[in-house]
Automatic annotation (TrEMBL):
It is a multi-pass membrane protein. It is found in: Cell membrane. One of its GO terms (biological process) is lipopolysaccharide transport. This is Permease YjgP/YjgQ family protein. PANTHER family: LIPOPOLYSACCHARIDE EXPORT SYSTEM PERMEASE PROTEIN LPTF (PTHR33529:SF7), SLR0882 PROTEIN-RELATED (PTHR33529). Keywords: Cell membrane, Membrane, Transmembrane, Transmembrane helix. It comes from Sulfurospirillum deleyianum (strain ATCC 51133 / DSM 6946 / 5175). Its main location: membrane. It holds the Pfam family LptF_LptG.
């Protein structure tokens, strides 16, 4: 890499870092607000909120890195044009084609990293995030408190007289309403302990009695220890492999849309590099304004096309939108950059 390339990358890198921090911070706030909304359903401490935030990092990077790359490239080249440094570079033989090759190579590397993130990290983090929330919901379902009526453990109504903490109870009463298959039951126990293992709950009862109310009699059974198990409907702790996760694109329209849309975002740096050159490289005396309108119009049009095509036909959307965008970008580059400079 020659000195001119290093000079361009130095300016680009400084601006890219600053913009990435700003966009990453804004995106993180949006995702963090989404996470904190879960606290209305389940209780989480700060460490658990941080864990959920980490699970959302791969998705955050997919949104922030491509947009940051495009905006940083546009503004970097525009600032060089403003100081007439691009003219100096062209005079020294570093023409727009060399700039295009440099940043197309950089954009290709970034897009490949984002595609790897989409196919590997996002499925894993999404499964971990879903299982963690399911686990906390299961835990919340069995957050039994002392001296409160209407609490349930599985199919049993529960009342306790005293609680030392969230797991140890004394003076426990459980009642099961009669069903077509089971008789009415009542359990009295001196002590109880709740165990939570990977979302599978067990209520351990000590020193108690069971009363079963049959049609013509009442049966009583004394016990020293008894276990009542309760398991969530969905299995917690089982994580799909990456292959199993993305196999869903063939049967799940939502999964297919997600893959198509994410791939288009990942390809945005490569698809938009030539547009960024066309926006950023200008003769400042005649083109002082319009850079920000052009930048945000490009982002809006691309993301709108990505959303629409991913909805209509997700199987072909990445290829169609990427090729169409790259072709339009190349035509704009030929007209405003290559033939002029």
């Amino acid at each position: 890499m020659n000195r001119t390339s290093r000079y361009l990358l130095k300016h680009f890198g400084a601006l890219f870092s600053s913009l990435f921090f700003i966009l990453f911070f804004i995106t993180s706030i949006v995702f963090f607000i989404k996470i904190t909304a879960l606290t209305a359903i389940i209780q989480m401490n700060f460490l658990e909120l941080g864990t959920l935030y980490i699970y959302l990092l791969p998705r955050t990077l997919v949104y922030t890195l491509p947009i940051t790359f495009f905006i940083a490239l546009c503004i970097t080249l525009f600032n060089l044009s403003k100081e007439n440094e691009t003219i100096v570079l062209f005079t020294l033989g570093y023409n727009p084609q060399k700039i295009a090759r440099l940043f197309l190579l950089l954009a290709t590397g970034l897009s490949l990293l984002l595609i790897l993130n989409i196919f590997v990290l996002i499925p894993i983090s999404k499964e971990l995030n879903s299982n963690f929330i399911d686990y906390k919901k299961a835990e919340a379902k069995f957050n039994i408190k002392a001296s409160e009526f209407g609490q349930k453990f599985s199919q049993w109504l529960v009342y306790i007289e005293k609680s030392d903490d969230q797991k140890h109870f004394s003076g426990v009463t459980l009642y099961q309403v009669p069903t077509p298959n089971e008789d009415e039951r009542l359990i009295l126990a001196n002590n109880a302990l709740i165990e939570n293992t990977d979302g599978k709950l067990r209520l351990n009862l000590e020193e108690g009695k069971i009363f079963e109310f049959k049609k013509n009699e009442i049966e009583q059974i004394n016990f020293e220890r008894m276990h009542i198990n309760s398991q969530p409907k969905a299995g917690i702790g089982t994580i799909q492999s990456v292959k199993e996760y993305w196999n869903g694109v063939f049967v799940n329209s939502k999964r297919a849309y997600e893959l198509a849309f994410f791939l288009l975002i990942a390809l945005f740096p490569l698809a938009s590099t030539l547009i960024a050159l066309s926006i950023g490289i200008v003769t400042y005396r005649y083109n002082k304004g319009g850079i920000y309108i052009a930048m945000f119009a490009t982002i809006f049009i691309y993301f709108a096309a990505a959303t629409l095509f991913s909805t209509w036909h997700p199987q072909s959307a990445p290829l169609v939108v990427f090729i169409l965008t790259f072709f339009i970008a190349y035509r704009i580059y030929l007209k405003y950059i290559k033939t002029v400079y």
